[in-house]
Amino acid sequence: MKASVVLSLLSYLVVPSDARVLGRCRVAKKLQEGGLSDFDGYSLENWVCLAYFESKFNPSAVYDNLRGDYTGYGLFQIRNNDWCDHGKNRCHVSCSALLNPDLKKTIECAKKIVQGKDGMGAW
């Protein structure tokens, strides 16, 4: 009984109840459907890896930089100071649209970012 209570409590700590984390295969499918497989020379594997390291596959992730100079939004943690409505808005999108689990606006913006001079190094 005691062990089941401890395991139950641990499960609440490991995955927040309101988290909308996608699985790796679901992310890969959405990215492929969005045209990112081999987009601008980057493989689907590159994109899936980027999504994992930026947000752990959480399309609703928001990260405030400790220095306060930017906030990252969504699956790829797209920065507000250049890419969405709180900054230069080069993607012509609201930052909140980058938090949608359908990933359409996120993928459109990621394509614009990777076509820049830094490619995937922009992340």
UniProtKB/TrEMBL annotation:
GO terms for cellular component: acrosomal vesicle; extracellular space; sperm flagellum. The keyword Iron does not apply. It holds the Pfam family Lys. Transmembrane segments: none annotated. It comes from the Eukaryota. One of its GO terms (molecular function) is lysozyme activity. Residues 91-109 form the Glycosyl hydrolases family 22 (GH22) domain. SUPFAM superfamilies: Lysozyme-like. Keywords: Disulfide bond, Signal. Residues 1-19 form the signal peptide. One of its GO terms (biological process) is fusion of sperm to egg plasma membrane involved in single fertilization. Belongs to the glycosyl hydrolase 22 family. PANTHER family: LYSOZYME C (PTHR11407), LYSOZYME-LIKE PROTEIN 4 (PTHR11407:SF21). This is Lysozyme like 4.
